Amino acid sequence: MKVLHVNMNLDAVHGGGTVERVWQLHRCMKQMPDVQSRILCLHSPDGHGQKDADVIEIPCLNRRWYLPAPYLLLMYRQARWADVIHLMNHWTVINALMYIMACLTHTPYVVCPAGALTLFGRSGAQKRLYRTLIGRNILRQSSAAIVIAEHERGLLYNEGVSETKIEHIPNGVNADDFRCQDVRQFRHQANLGDRDYILFVGRLNPIKGADLLLQAFASLAQDFPMVDLVLAGPDGGQRMELEQQALAAGLQSRIHFPGVVRGGEKSAAYHHALVTVIPSRKEAMSIVALEAAICASPVVLTDQCGFDHMEEAGAALLAEANSESLARRLREVLRYDCSARNTMGQRGQAFARDHYTWQWAAKRHIKMFETCISSS
After folding, report:
1. Residues 52 and 84 grouped into a single domain
2. What is the pLDDT of residue 308?
3. CA distances from 166 to 80, 157, 246 (A)
4. Same domain for 326 and 202?
């Protein structure tokens, strides 16, 4: 089987969860017998392309809109090569072009919007136009659709996708990527010294809710004077605002912005955090929650993360997507003794290992692709 994954980019810094999902699925599929896997994406200065000959990169003409160079013949050839095309994300020009190529070559394709169907954030008018011109057709004419979280089913129904086409395949985690526990480099990068800390990992933009977490921390900082807050991740347009909020609250020395944290530093950051917080206003299914869980970090996340059953497993505390609710949950977990936090973290680790691996997710994808190919 020849699988072509299509994603906007493989930028490990700014690309978000879809980058991790595509890369991990591709990596797992390449290890499977009788499966060939490629990724088609726009060139990413900080991507995975240089590490893998099976990543085909197209020059990007505009970073604001991620417009691909018109390499139409290359796209057509990749569509002809593939037995099935896997379209990740939704509001992208490269997806629209590859949908056209799939129609021209009669190649079955599968869509995975990955939480992108909601009209959240900027460019609302452009997204509505995209939906009218081509987006709705991409979804409706797909051979199958993948949801990362169950609540996405309703969004696909609303776009006219048949219920029989939809399958739930959640995100995963690779435990081998998170074995490092040497926290010295991370503490140096974050200028933390030996202080305890609450950890946020993600883009600093409104949808990820770092501002909600900062407000929650400000409301309890006096009660926990030995605990700092680390907001780790690339600037998505909100860092200056967050720094100003920290200054206004008089907490600039206790709120740290180490920038992008990757590899062993990120693993160690999770392992040593008092708690990892995912304060998202909207999320399909948080990969950060799984990464924290596999490192046995206690987790607080909002009810907008598509991961409520982490709380049911005793692996997380659930909050509403506002600063008051986040503050209540943070107080709760910070008041736990060390043993209680360790127990919560160990439950999370078992939860992630038993139910969420990329190998399992890749096998589910292949099974779905086989059905699509046989039905085409």
Report:
1. yes
2. 82
3. 25, 9, 44
4. yes
